[in-house]
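Consortium newsletter contribution from the modelling node. Members have asked for a concrete example of what our holo predictions look like. Here is one, prepared for the zinc ion complex that several groups have been discussing at recent meetings.
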Amino acid sequence: MLTLTCPCCGVAAEETELVGGGEAHLKRQGPGSDDRAFEQYLFLRENPKGVHFERWRHAYGCGKWFHVARDTATLEVFGTYSAQVSAPPDDIRAVIFERRPGWSWREFA
Ligand SMILES: [Zn+2]
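And here is the predicted structure:
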């Protein structure tokens, strides 16, 4: 079972206490964007086998959203962090680089 530590309240919550919110760090597209960029924002999502950044909500706890860096194949969690940032923090990236040398994803390499 997946267990994530909520960075907002500090509780180590089991998956049944959480609700997944999909991919993290999406670039929002507004009315001024072209159709391709808006389609990508609305419908297209990454689904990697390996390191991924996701949004989760501590639904049966503090109720707050947060981000998780984890491996989708092994369920290994690299860390959780605030949903108020637009990119993974350096300490989370350092953990990923230490455990997955050569890893890169989008501009977060
Ligand atoms: Zn919480």
